[in-house]
Design brief:
Layout: H1 2-10, E1 18-22, H2 28-40, E2 45-47, H3 55-64, E3 69-73, H4 75-80, E4 82-87, E5 92-97, H5 98-108
Parallel strand pairs: 1-2, 1-3
Antiparallel strand pairs: 3-4, 4-5
Length: 110
């Protein structure tokens, strides 16, 4: 009974602060770069290891791990050197220049 109570209590604890998602193939290197930067700053960051992951599966992974922010990187974002960042609680997303997006995330967890 106690284990069940502990499990229930911990159900809503975030597994990741940030989940980095890719749209389409060719995003793996950029996703790894973002994940590495955030992890080095001590931010719990997750991503799919697939080279061409489905966005619906990544969204599900982010939701089920109670992620606070989701970074979405697709071909257009890469061409423009931008990051799309979604606030998972507010359900709002905003496009940032690459470094501004990194700085935004670092400021949220410092």
């Amino acid at each position: 009974i106690l284990m069940g109570a502990v499990k229930k209590e911990n159900d809503n604890i975030s597994k990741y602060d940030v989940f980095v998602a890719g749209i389409g193939s060719g995003t793996l290197e950029t996703r790894l770069k973002v994940v590495t930067l955030l992890r080095r700053a001590g931010i719990r960051t997750g991503m799919s290891n697939h080279t061409n992951p489905k966005i619906s599966k990544q969204m599900k992974d982010a939701l089920f791990s109670y992620t606070k922010y989701m970074v979405i990187i697709g071909g257009e974002e890469m061409k423009q050197n931008k990051l799309k960042i979604k606030d998972m609680d507010a359900k709002m997303e905003q496009m940032y220049d690459y470094q501004d997006g990194i700085d935004f995330l670092l400021s949220k967890f410092s």
